[in-house]
Amino acid sequence: GPDRDEVLGTVRRLYAELVGYPEDVFESGTDLEADLGIDSIKQTEAFARITDHFGIPESAAVDVRLTGYPTVDAVADLVVELAEGRELTGTVA
Questions:
Q1: pLDDT beneath 50, residues of the chain
Q2: Given this model, what pLDDT does residue 90 score?
Q3: CA 30 to chain CA centroid, nearest Å
């Protein structure tokens, strides 16, 4: 699968592009909604761009509840799992 640091960098970049924030606001512990005000609609849009970027099929990501992945680090971990085609655990929020 892809390198996690590379995935994290891409996740941060795509979020930054989508919402118009500088990349450095996306710290590892920063809550996308609570701290940055990025609502679930924007998170879903960002996630679609991210999975598209990494060639992850929509079917693999269809059951993901993004509320369970509130930080860029959590999203990056999820993307690595999906990219490796692992069985997902803990997707139900």
A1: 87, 89-90, 92-93
A2: 47
A3: 13
Cα separation, 69 vs 78, in Å, equals 8
| Alpha helices, H only, 1-93 | 4-19, 40-53, 58-61, 72-83
Name the one residue in this structure whose structure tokens are 């590892």: 28
Residues in Cβ contact with 69 at an 8 Å cutoff, skipping those fewer than 6 apart: 75, 77, 78
Half-sphere exposure of 33 (CA within 13 A, CB side): 11
Gap between the Cα atoms of 70 and 75, Å rounded: 7
Fold of 4-83: 1.10.1200
pLDDT of the residue at 93: 45
Please state, in angstroms and as integers, the Cα–Cα distance from residue 18 to each residue in 14, 65, 85, following that order.
6, 20, 26
